[in-house]
Amino acid sequence: MKAVCWHGTNDVRVETVPDPKILNPRDAIIKITSTAICGSDLHIYNGYIPTMQSGDILGHEFMGEVVELGSAVKNVKVGDRVVVPFTISCGSCFFCQRDLWSLCDNSNPNAWMVELQMGHSPAGLFGYSHLFGGYAGGQAEYARVPFADVGLLKIPDNLPDEQVLFLTDIFPTGYMAAENCNIKPGDIVAVWGCGPVGQFAIKSAYMLGAERVIAFDRIPERLQMAKEQCNAEVLNYEEVNIGEALKEMTGGRGPDACIDAVGMEAHGTDLMAFYDQVKQAVRLETDRPTALRQVIVSAAKGGHVSLAGVYGGFLDKIPMGSAMNKGLTFKMGQTHVHKYLRPLLERIQNGEIDTSFVITHTLPLEQAPHGYEIFKHKKDNCIKVVLKPSGN
């Protein structure tokens, strides 16, 4: 089959690799009909995720048709259209039983690697390094899905791929980011980053009762989408002082909740942002927490801080004194996708949201390297790339 393979920083190639096979009775083989390039994939593309090996298959947002099942998989049948959560979860461990699916104890065979750095291991992830299990990803023609008996969600035939593909990651991620804000009627929510996750965080904040959502970015087409498609009040952070702007827009109080939808590769305009870039370049710092610093300082006293952007290691110059003395509440984590699949599918079916609004580019799988380049460099007004394997 054809698959998108990683070969180093800024080097992905579409290559012929062996077809996946059933390895466990709980496995399924999926013929992929749609897959996407995620902002998290760019962290790998840019060389910031360790333990990648040349030839690893990328991708964690994918869906398709069941073509083969292990003997223990009874929830779907061959021929069903399904979406696949990007987190791999067993369904029976302590954490899965408590709806903390991204913390599964049984799906990362390389848990020892993560434990050395983080103390405990989260779930395995598709296409996201050997640190998180070394699982082949879904930017391919076929994929093996472990724990398919709890992970696959059957999709009604009347819903096109473009409306349900993002149930695999970015829609639940944006929704959980908003849910973590404990939004109450009348609340003002601020969102850092208007990429695809930020767009869904804005939509979700309104679904959960926010009165106003203020969003920041520096890319004009992202700001336009957030304003026109998501009804956000938007500001270009290269043109305003975020802290001062938020005080003015909130009567001096600050936002009731702040969402960091940027993560480890944040850009900025101040001296601290330059400091982060230098330290990250020489590997004295793993992440650039520009957005996180702004979130903490800008949030209202007693407010909520939600982290949806990915952080990978150790951060510098975090204003914890501000967080502690303002009494902020933090919630974060990889998304518990399984928890949100059915409720968010119902929202799509009820017409509350058409998630396809974020798609700006649909390309054949063979053009994945081009897709990565335009997504990374924000060329051709690119916000979200969907890849289609041959014949799909």
Write the layout of secondary structure elements.
Blueprint: E1 2-8, E2 11-16, E3 28-37, H1 39-45, E4 56-57, E5 61-69, E6 81-84, E7 87-88, H2 111-118, E8 124-125, E9 142-145, H3 148-151, E10 153-154, H4 161-164, H5 170-179, E11 188-192, H6 196-207, E12 212-217, H7 220-228, E13 233-236, H8 242-249, E14 257-260, H9 271-281, H10 290-298, E15 304-307, H11 320-325, E16 329-332, H12 337-349, E17 361-364, H13 368-376, E18 385-388
Parallel strand pairs: 11-12, 11-14, 12-13, 14-15, 15-16, 17-18
Antiparallel strand pairs: 1-2, 1-4, 3-5, 3-9, 3-18, 5-6, 6-10, 7-8
Helix pairs in contact: 5-6, 5-12
Protein name: Glutathione-dependent formaldehyde dehydrogenase
Family: Belongs to the zinc-containing alcohol dehydrogenase family.
Domain Alcohol dehydrogenase-like N-terminal: 25-156
Give a structural overview:
With 392 residues, the protein is α/β, with parallel strands linked by helices. The chain folds into two domains: 2-169 and 336-388, Medium-chain alcohol dehydrogenases, catalytic domain (Quinone Oxidoreductase, Chain A, domain 1, Alpha-Beta Complex), CATH 3.90.180.10; 170-332, Rossmann fold, CATH 3.40.50.720. The protein is 28% helix and 21% strand. It has 13 helices and 18 strands. The strands form four sheets. Strands 3, 5, 6, 9, 10, 17 and 18 form a seven-stranded mixed sheet that branches. A six-stranded parallel sheet has the order 13-12-11-14-15-16, with helices on both faces. α5 (170-179) crosses α6 (196-207). It is globular. It starts with a strand and ends with a strand. Its cofactor is Zn(2+). Residues 196-265 form the Alcohol dehydrogenase-like C-terminal domain. It holds the Pfam family ADH_N. Residues 25-156 form the Alcohol dehydrogenase-like N-terminal domain.
